[in-house]
Amino acid sequence: MFFRRYRALVILGLGFAVIAVLTLYFQQIKLDQLQNELSKVELQNVRIGAGISNDKLGTAIFGEIFNNGEHIINIAVMNVKFFSEDGEAAVEHKFFPVNKFSFTDSLPLKPGQSKEFGFPIDDIVPEDWDGTFAAKLTDLTFK
Fold first, then answer.
1. What does the pLDDT look like over 10-23, one tens digit per residue?
2. Which of 11, 19, 112, 140 gives a 20 to 30 Å CA spacing to 94?
3. How far apart are alpha carbons 88 and 84 in whole angstroms?
4. With a cut of 70, which residues of the chain have pLDDT below it?
């Protein structure tokens, strides 16, 4: 009697549960694939130095990104943490060493290629920045 009365609701609930489980399953597969591809792309020689941007001398973060994977990268997201004098991450900022929407360098990064990058940071770093940082690739978008 209970099932007859609430049959539509039970079926709808089961359908929702199946969709939720499948969604979580496919999200996990996609996350595993991203982690696999991130392991194939390297940041090298990431450093802080002086550079010229828009005819102004300032502090910048420089480095090189290598694509050791099999896919063409349209966008690469690099997360950089700048640490304060007390050792805490004072500022966290995203940079895009590969960006198909860039006005200055919109070329993708093909397999086997590398690209040098540099971004001004004078307006980003906190006043109590101790000069240390940590850089890590966090996301990739493929062609």
1. 778 888 878 888 88
2. 112
3. 6
4. 1-3, 53-54
